[in-house]
Amino acid sequence: MACKTDRIDAWVPAELSRRDLVPAIWLPDPAVRAERERARWRLHLVRHRTALKNRIPATLLTFGHPCPVSDLFGAAGRRLLDSLQLPEPWAADVAVALELIDLLDGQIDDCEAALRIFGADHRYVPLLMSAPGIGWVLGYTIAAEIGEIGRGSPRRRSWSATPGCARRWISPAGMTGAGSWPGTARSTCAGR
Predict the structure, then answer these.
(1) Is the pTM here over 0.70, yes or no?
(2) Nearest to 65 by CA among 75, 77, 53, 49
(3) Beta strands in the chain (DSSP E)
(4) pLDDT, tens digit (0-9, with 9 covering 90-100), for 125-168
């Protein structure tokens, strides 16, 4: 809708704005963006490491070498990889992949140390860690992406994001409607 010069086309956004139907956006401040970037960078490095770790067993299977150890990247697995005689260029690919995995492990450890320093007192992390399967790093990542829960108007926060929920309301008196959210109404979901 930027750079509208036609009077008729400009009328629509002006009317929406006049009726307060244009939603406000929230832009995070630099501190919140930095918090998110730290967590996202760690995830980026982990994805690269995972891709490299997946290539090595695939290469072994290509040449009929199943993995007899439980951890191919532990001490026994590394000895196994050193003893294998793979043809070139696959042998060099595996060697470089192992070097990159070691480098990425160090970078990921550094990222996690930084996350612990910067996010040590994040108020959402303990609550998120109470859910099964969420550790400190994932809890911090989720908390950084969520941001401040209390931002935005109460009217906008009242809408349900649950799939299948209808955008309608029922007042305590039993009246139904659609559109703007009345102050004392509650949301309903289809079929409930």
Answers:
(1) no
(2) 77
(3) 165-170, 176-178, 186-189
(4) 889 999 999 998 999 999 888 877 776 555 544 444 444 444 44
